[in-house]
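Let us practice reading a record.
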Amino acid sequence: MSANFLNHDDLGTVIRLAPLVAIDFVIRNARDEVILGLRNNEPAKDCYFVPGGMILKNERLADAFSRLLKTETGYAVSIDDARLIGAFEHFYENNRFGAPDYGTHYVVLGYEIRVAGAAEPQPDDQHSANCAGGRSPNYWLPTGCTKTLKPISAADGSYASMTILGAGRPDTARPSRTRAAMAR
């Protein structure tokens, strides 16, 4: 079976009734900076967020990894060259459709990727201007940076605090303890 995108109505039903499974990328350059993009879409609209997206029905994990990374950044990196950070849960009170009666729940596999140099990613249309007001929709956040990015998504705070800034995790984004994560 081939992987397919759901139509608008079916995706709305899934978001209303079940968690979405997704991949997020913590991408580091040679200066150990991490890429963030300002989101145009709900959930987390107008928040800085790491690149990532949903895994499709019947899509193999390695294929989803390659598709999402290429679509979101233009980078081509094998899943074998990435490090699994862990499994996380993201909860939002809203959804991409603006429907008032349900939120969005993601179960996310977070992967760390290293890229050579400070190569600029080629982002998709989900992101707008960076926090410095530049034309690139992305922003390389230095590790240990205390600059306030207004705002970093609370759901994505797990990466910002645990992986990027090295501080404690907020309650709004809790890592899931899976057998794979515990085995590392």
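A brief commentary: The first helix runs from residue 8 to 17.
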